[in-house]
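Give me the fold.
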Amino acid sequence: MRWTRTRPSSFHPAGAICNGGAVANRFTRGTRLAISEPVTSVGAGGPRRRILIVDDDVDAAEALGELLRDCGHDVATAHDGPQALNRARLRRPDVVLLDITMPEMDGYEVAKRMRDELGLCDTLLVALSGYAEDRHRRLAREAGFDQHVTKPVDTTTLAELLKPQA
């Protein structure tokens, strides 16, 4: 299952439910999130996780945040590298979903600083990228990411990532 942003004129209610909350909503720039299938498994029923979502696309970050909040998680968002480091310093997240391509400070640099300067060694760092080539996965590993996920994020993959690690 994938999420899709659609124009308001072509939006059809998705009927996506997670813990009883509708997931389709209007965002600041007039885009909408549409999920074509139920997403009841995106971390629902599992432990509540502290999640930081970092993406310079405000609508994408807020849409993913809303989905995860509806599933019971404690979610914060940031829209650039410095803001992400500040939020991570204050919140000490369990999981960081971090866009790679951002202006000013890319996701690789943010990940390195989270590991080195903030000491987030036990935090699951997930690279969100539009690139799926081996070299991008290698760069993500070298920067300190635990996982590399290609956008758009598949909710089944997201649910697997949010399961507690044994």
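The domain at 43-162 is CATH 3.40.50.2300 (Rossmann fold).
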